[in-house]
Amino acid sequence: MEKGFSASALIEEKLAKATMMDNAFMTAVLDDNPEGVEVILRTVLGKPDLCVVTIKVQRALQNLHGHSAVLDVFARDSSGKFYNIEVQNDPRGASPKRARYHSSLLDSHELKEGLVYENLSESYVIFITKQDTFGQGRAIYSFVRTETSTGEPLEDGTHIIYVNGSYEPEDPTADIAMLLHDPQTPDPDTMHFEEFSEKANRLKGKGGETIMSKYWEDVYNEAKDLGRSIGLEAGLKEGRAQGLEQGIEEGRAQGLEQGLEQGLEQGRAQGRAASNDESSRIARFLADSSRAQDIPVVLADDALRAKVLAEIDALRD
């Protein structure tokens, strides 16, 4: 085992193989890229004039009384409609009940205190999946609430949509065919939409590993800060700051969504009790090795985690 490996070098290697179906790479490509988000929404919804005015990637929606969520991409258009776009390689992460929960969180964060329900904007939760979630061989599955006897739509403004990444259109030049192709290729030069390829090329080019490392560090710090502020708002007692910080570090391996929730739980109830947790071992080891800047990168990647754990075990032997 080579001691003190370079996280940047490993990120560079992974970037060469990364596609937009990889959560981290997709959110980096779409970050501050309204044109890229517009390509997805216009193609999926069939609305060529849709204009995106707001984008936030890895947006944390906190639920103080239950499960929290971190949205891959949150966007709002010029008419006030808002959208949550998620990419999922694992079918277990794209269950209809998860889509339902994302939709409910969007509403709860949209409706501010004092506003009436009619002020709720129309919302869309869109899952782009590697496999055919429903097994019916269609490119797009679109759901709205309906009356069970007549099929009449409830018209409550909520939409849940699944895009089947395994679908093979007859016409490869159709917009949906190109949209399904581009997120699954690691080579930006083979992408059809320049709204994706231009940003992907920058991320995969010289210095891209630094951008990605800094990107994840910023996301990690934002999650930590958010968790801390929510913990304070909820009235955490003594020791909450340390417990919250460690809780988020420990939860990072399971994604920012679970990291935030676990950080709150640790801050309220357990503090630093789970010191032997695998993620804590990694975080402490990197910090003690003056490699704290690598913590968010390593905790987000299974291959890097394995390398660090092997390094820790080697030092024990």
Explain the layout of strands and helices.
Blueprint: H1 7-17, H2 23-30, H3 34-45, E1 52-61, E2 69-77, E3 82-88, H4 96-110, E4 123-129, E5 140-143, E6 158-164, H5 175-181, H6 194-204, H7 208-233, H8 240-251, H9 256-270, H10 278-288, H11 295-299, H12 302-316
Parallel strand pairs: 3-4, 4-6
Antiparallel strand pairs: 1-2, 2-3, 5-6
The count of domains is: 2
**What is the total tally of β strands?**
6
How many H/I helical runs? 12
Instruction: Provide the residue-averaged pLDDT.
Output: 81
What summary fits the major beta sheet?
6 strands, mixed
Q: Quote the beta fraction.
A: 5-15%
| Uncertain stretches of 5 or more adjacent residues | 271-276
Helix content: 40-55%
End-to-end span in angstroms? 12 Å
Order of helices and strands: HHHEEEHEEEHHHHHHHH
- Strands side by side in the biggest sheet: 1-2-3-4-6-5
Structural class: alpha/beta
Shape, please? globular
Give me the Rg, rounded: 21 Å
